[in-house]
Amino acid sequence: MISVRNLKKSFGDHQVLKDVDMDVDEREVVVIIGPSGSGKSTLLRCIGQLETVNEGEIAVNGTVISQHDEHDKYTRADIGMVFQQFNLFPHYTCMENIVLAPTKVKKMPLPEAQELAIELLREVGLEDKASAYPSSLSGGQQQRVAIARALAMKPKMMLFDEPTSALDPEMVGEVLEVMRRLAKEGMTMIVVTHEMGFAREIGDRVIFMDGGQILEQGDPVSLFANPQNPRTQAFLSKVL
């Protein structure tokens, strides 16, 4: 579903991604782990077309996408993204946050978008918060609304950039539960996370990045129990 080839990305003189190759199959859940500054979030933002790549290409369902191509807007609409910070519009209710993109981008009729929003809020356990403003919600609730907002565009895949890192520990579980349900429903997902237990549980494949490169990847059981790369070994010895 996603193919990344020879991807390079620099910010000024600092090269963040170095010849990254990566494939993600339909319905697969790929979890990316690694130390801070290893390029994980930048890779995700390049796939989501939030960063312009310097070299290489990204293809979704066989179509090469480019931030500069107007035809790619439909491909980009197939990719939902959830960030560390919730990025909800504070002056909009939860309902208004969710219906904004479907009505503006996909020209969905407002009643249909509102019905979809209620359905999605129900899925994330917040049906009673449709008229609430973000400031009245906990961090975990805001992140669940952000997930519902991304799902409102009916994406074919979801990207999660450390979705629990800004949450208090007791709020983490409620967000991870929503992600577990999406995985069970067959959503294609790429997840950057520091939650190693979650990575082990939900991932079909775990990728370890450091220094802008993919150093090792494999199924969670094998990678966590018997990492082959010395850098992976050193990292996991500190975080597990």
From TrEMBL:
It is an enzyme of class 7 (translocase). It is a peripheral membrane protein. It is found in: Cell membrane. It catalyses: a polar amino acid(out) + ATP + H2O = a polar amino acid(in) + ADP + phosphate + H(+). Its EC number is 7.4.2.1. Pfam families: ABC_tran (PF00005). Belongs to the ABC transporter superfamily. This is ABC-type polar-amino-acid transporter. It comes from Bifidobacterium tibiigranuli.
